[in-house]
């Protein structure tokens, strides 16, 4: 009957919308560089399928309601109209998921850029250590005035790296985990590496100042 058809599709739509709510909760930022793009693609595909499925089911529910509305009294008709309207409003989750995926896509780009900059800091630290060691134990004798010049250059460069690290730290505050589910081992790994970079720079700065 029309009523059974309506009820079956209404219940089915409610379940699909509940699944969409769950899917939205799963659309979190992935801090594993090797997985973030695949993570996004998978959720984008799921969201697109859900949209198609939910919109199609809603049309069936609305059509069934239109038929029932001709057969029912005003009171029941208004009750079903409210029910359909509530389901329609719940479908806003589809746009919310699309918006969230755009946020995740932007996050992925920023995370990759952040990782590249972090690698540059780590590479600089290796070179900075070597420059300090060369000052302390040069392979070839250097004049006192050259030593002073190299020391001042290194100090300036270290200070510049510390300033850059401050900006890098600000970028992290923009992309850092938003909730406990995003606070993964990979996210903690970024924090650890950033801490190691700044600790090294501060130690190196103190060392080069003591030589100045």
Descriptive tags:
212 residues; 0% strand; 6 helices; rod-shaped
Verbal overview:
- By secondary structure, the protein is mainly α.
- The protein is rod-shaped and about 100 Å long.
- It has helices spanning 2-26, 36-69, 74-90, 92-136, 144-175, 185-211.
- It starts with a helix and ends with a helix.
- The mean pLDDT is 96.
- The longest helix has 45 residues, at 92-136.
Overview in brief:
The protein is built from six helices and no strands. By secondary structure, it is an all-alpha fold. The model has no long low-confidence stretch (mean pLDDT 96).
User: Regions with pLDDT < 50 over 5+ consecutive residues?
Assistant: none
Report the strand count: 0
- Quick one: overall form? rod-shaped
Question: What is the CA-CA span between the terminal residues?
Answer: 91 Å
Total helices: the number is: 6
Helical/strand content category: mainly alpha
- How big a fraction of the residues is strand? under 5%
Radius of gyration: 30 Å
Oligomeric form = single chain
Q: What is the mean predicted local confidence, pLDDT?
A: 96
SSE string, helix = H, strand = E? HHHHHH
Roughly how much helix do the residues carry, as a percent range? Answer: over 70%
For the largest beta-sheet, the strand count, sense and barrel status come to: none
